[in-house]
Description:
alpha/beta; D-Maltodextrin-Binding Protein, domain 2; seven-stranded mixed β-sheet; two-stranded antiparallel sheet; 9 helices
Amino acid sequence: MADWDLRKLHILRTLRERGTVTATAEALHMTPSAVSQQLTNLSKQLGVELLRAQGRRVRLTDAARLVLRHAEAVFEQLERADAELAAHLRGEAGEVRVGAFSTAVPALVVPAVTALRASRPGIAVRVREAEAQEVYELLAAGEVDLALSLAAQAPSAVDPRFTRVPLFADPLDVALPGDHPLARAERLRLADLAAEPWIFGAGGPWSDITRGACEAAGFRPHQAHAAAGWPAILAMVEAGMGVALVPRMAAVPRGGVAMRELRADRPVRHVVAAVRKGAEEGAAVATVLTALRTAADARP
């Protein structure tokens, strides 16, 4: 029978996700030579070729993909074992590390933590703010137990590593300068703003979401200014420099900005939670997930 070494299988799995030996070594706090040595040893133990050189990179062989397909079931079962052991030893007590994108922290995580302090004081929640895509890397690396992200940034729903839980659809409202001719127009539609200068990120999820919503409404937005932070975007809108789509849970009232709901072609962004496959059965993680759902349900 082949010698299945879990630590080396974890290194192979990380190589599949990171793509290079150098990136794998960085993620696992190892040297590239140690990664290569461990994978060479694993290949010998299993009696199959796992990697082939491809220029300066390496690629996984079909045998390596077969090995990882079976290893995923093992990793999932170990996650279940960890979750069940934690529930047995601590009951509803424990620590849950939550990674969340910036606007989700005040809108969802803080209300959930506040409620848990009253109802489940034995559960400690540690929060780490990260970009919507980065939280999945943290989750896969075991640095957080639960990730809050956007569906548009999430890995495929069939990704064997994660269980995804939809939380809610966050409406996107349009921010207009307070003195804009359309600031008080009845039945405002996104298409009414086709000729306006737009403010959104130079790249990343918010750029994709804004462009996608506008294109669905029949036009391509002219990007007059690029900004990533909501205070900067709203300050430019207030100064009359353009208009912007703003998620409702990110909006901060400003006297010179008119926030208008788009009823006819109402765009939304979908907020999801994710855990490593099997970990959702842990009592502490399940309790935090329930608190997050409650906070999401309470959103307007």
